[in-house]
Amino acid sequence: MPSVSETPPWNVHRLPRAEGRRFLVTGGNAGIGYFVAEQLAATGATVVLGSRDPAKARAAIASIGSRVPGADVRHLPLDLADLASLRASVDALGPDRLDAVVHNAGVALDHPPRRESADGHELMLATNHLGHFALTHHLAPLLAATPGSRVVTTGSFAAKSEHLDLDDLQSTRDYRPKRTYARSKLAQMLFALELDRRLRAARSTTLSVLVHPGGALDALTPSRPRVHVRTTGARLRHLPLGLVVQGKDAAAWPAVRAVLDPGVRGGQMWSPRVFGLRGTPRTEPLWDHLKDTATAARLWAASRELTGTDPSFAG
After folding, report:
1. Is 181 a catalytic residue?
2. Can you tell me the distance from the alpha carbon of 218 to that of 285, in angstroms, rounded to the nearest whole number?
3. Does the pLDDT value for residue 243 go beyond 90?
């Protein structure tokens, strides 16, 4: 018989219970973030959807409630591209515990022209990286007050072949939407690892964990009528791709495990098992350019200057 001290194998379909815990998922009203929220809600935890669109948040909450009887899911107005609004959003969370935040929300633009946030920052960098950097700053006291809390940051496979240009972080000289998106996700990933180093130096019990969802297609994602509808035709046309990539429900698994698994450690990267593109979650060795601590430190300094915030934890 197995030892009582052994951890049972992780089962994406049988998650551990998490009553009394509270999780914030940015962008939890759609896409991968929706399925992260749905799966976490099924554990009995309170799940807060960070979303700038109240109607979409209400639809997501209704959808989760129809699938998870008794789900405790709430909406937090949150606009990551508006730095001045973030403190009020965090204040609205209240003084209670926060066991994890999943930095999931993101913007991906496909075509020029280059767009800017209200703060004058390139929109993808502003939403995907700078907004989450500043949000972590405002959440730090709440996370630090919750023993064993976690900051889970969602990167992207698109960042694997990119490098940051710290002299043109805002893509003002050479704007190419797909490259700018990939670099914004790389910035997120470097942030997650630098945050882990700073948490360890501060002897904090908060963990910073990096995840990436692999390849995820709407056509392979199960329907949630209030949020997403998959047609039979689209599913059949894209079915062969299921050998390589997966739906957004499965793409949520690495983040969900990073939130819930007691065996997860800070500084790890969790991704799909099969070539980092599909399958159940497992730890993946850090890509070589993610180990560049000098670039990560320079990015942190630039992010601090651009946002006027500095995420720090103690105790």
Report:
1. yes
2. 28
3. no
Cα–Cα nearest to 146, from 195, 211, 198, 94: 94
pLDDT at residue 244, as a whole number = 75
Confidence of residue 228 (pLDDT cuts 50, 70, 90): confident
Tokens 């972080």 locate to 169
Res. 298 pLDDT band, cuts 50 70 90: very high
> pTM here?
0.94
Long-range contacts at 83-88 (CB < 8 A, ≥ 24 apart): 83/117, 83/119, 83/130, 83/131, 83/134, 83/307, 83/308, 83/309, 84/118, 84/119, 86/131, 86/134, 86/135, 86/138, 87/138
User: What is the b/e burial string over 65-87, where b = at least 16 CB atoms within 10 angstroms of the residue's CB?
Assistant: beebeebebebbebbbbbbebbe
Whether 116 shows a pLDDT value over 70: the answer reads: yes
Which among 10, 34, 157, 181 is annotated as catalytic?
181
For 58, the 3-state DSSP assignment is: helix
**For helices 177-201 and 293-307, what crossing angle results, to 10°?**
100
Up-side HSE of residue 273: CA atoms within 13 Å toward CB?
Answer: 9
- Measured CA to CA, the distance from residue 274 to residue 286 in angstroms comes to 16
